[in-house]
Amino acid sequence: MNSATPGQPKRTAFLLSQLGAVASSRFADRTREIGLTPGDAGVIRLLGRAPGLSQRSLADRLGAVPSRVVSLIDSLQGRGLVERVRSSTDRRNYELHLTDAGQRVLRELRGIAEQHEAELLAPLSGEQAAQLGLLLAQLADGHGLDRDLHRDSARDGVGEGRRKA
């Protein structure tokens, strides 16, 4: 492994960027195989963890403009993966829930994610992978990132428009 010489940068940020790009591209390929974009997969995963979110709340979590989320949910609903249910507490809002088909896709996505992570981390020992996970979580927390949500989904249009600082 190349180590930095005194006075030269270690290029850690560059390597993180490179690995992030590879990981994102490979995950996009995997989700495409089941007819989803990474943005679709993120919404399905988020609704699996937080059923009943409103479209506005979902847009806020994604850092996306609400109109983009409407079209995304329309698409997922049209494929039978998500349903809008009138809120019992605020009749002006709809809650978003995964359908049975959406729950099946979520289970499939979990398998894809596990395989993806195993392949990405294959060059590391179990101990190294665990340490890397802890360090990356610490970095994510230190930069105010949501560990459960990839907000940079501009490639497939989800995150276009609005970003939180």
**What portion of residues belong to β-strands?**
5-15%
The ordered string of helix (H) and strand (E) elements is: HHEHHEEHH
Query: What's the assembly state of these chains?
Result: single chain
The secondary structure category is mainly alpha
Strand order of the largest sheet: 1-3-2
Tell me how many strands there are: 3
Radius of gyration, in Å, reads: 18 Å
State mean pLDDT (0 to 100 scale).
86
Kindly state the percentage of residues in helix: 55-70%
Q: Uncertain spans, ≥5 residues at pLDDT below 50? A: 152-165
Query: First CA to last CA: what distance?
Result: 35 Å
Topology:
Blueprint: H1 12-33, H2 38-49, E1 53-54, H3 55-62, H4 66-78, E2 82-86, E3 94-98, H5 100-120, H6 126-142
Antiparallel strand pairs: 1-3, 2-3
Task: Provide structural commentary.
- The structure is a single chain.
- The protein has 165 residues and is mainly alpha-helical.
- The protein is built from six helices and three strands.
- The chain has a three-stranded antiparallel beta sheet.
- The two termini are 35 Å apart.
- Residues 152-165 have low confidence and may be disordered.
